[in-house]
Amino acid sequence: MKKKTTITCANCGKKAEKDISEAKRNEQKGRKSYCNRKCAALGENNLGDSLGVGSYEIKQHAGNRRDEFSPFKYFARKARSRNKEKGFPTTDVSPEYLAQLWKDQRGVCPLSGWPLELPPTSKSWEENSATPKTASLDRIRPGEPYTQGNVRFIANIANRAKHTYSDKDVIEFCKAVSSNVTK
User: Half-sphere exposure of residue 72, counting CA atoms within 13 Å on the CB side?
Assistant: First the structure.
């Protein structure tokens, strides 16, 4: 059984029994104590100076967890998820590894030579995934899991075209399209 304490209601002045932990929490946060919810809900006048004290504004903290690896967390999470879907062992692809890979590739697609667009967060990647130049994590050997040494960043359009085909197949297809269009 929880320990109780006696508080004085800030609205009606009655004495009431409350859990000691609740009373201490209210005191520490500068909140007033009430005998029941009805007294607590009677309006702003009863809240006075404590209105807004202890409230949480998510907007003031937006982006507080971003770091230099944030753009790569989406890709690492997707690699884990896709390995699991396909019955492969867990991946060793981490956001740190992907950040270094991005740096090594200088943000350029090895197939098209295009500079890739790297969305800053997971949410922005999901919102902008339809753009052809958005970075996409590719398995170099499609039949193998997402692992260090078997992944690279390529243009989203190239990864969609590649799917289960080799680089050679995609390049051959692109050449055929190019020569056919110029006729």
Answer: 18
CB 145 within 8 A of CB 88: yes
Beta bridge partners of 4: 19
Locate tokens 């130049």: which residue? 133
pLDDT tens digit sequence for 142-174: 889 999 999 999 998 898 888 878 888 888 988
C-alpha angle 168-169-172 in degrees, rounded to nearest 5: 85
Torsion angles phi and psi, residue 182, rounded to 5: -80, -5
pLDDT, tens digit (0-9, with 9 covering 90-100), for 90-100: 889 999 999 99
**What is the C-alpha separation between 110 and 118, in angstroms, rounded?**
15
As a CATH number, domain 70-181 is: 3.30.40.220
Q: List Cα–Cα distances, 181 to 87, 113, 167, in angstroms.
A: 41, 21, 21
Tokens 């059984």 appear where? 1
- pTM value is 0.62
Write down the domain spans for the chain: 4-55, 70-181
**H-helix segments, 106-166:** 122-127, 156-162
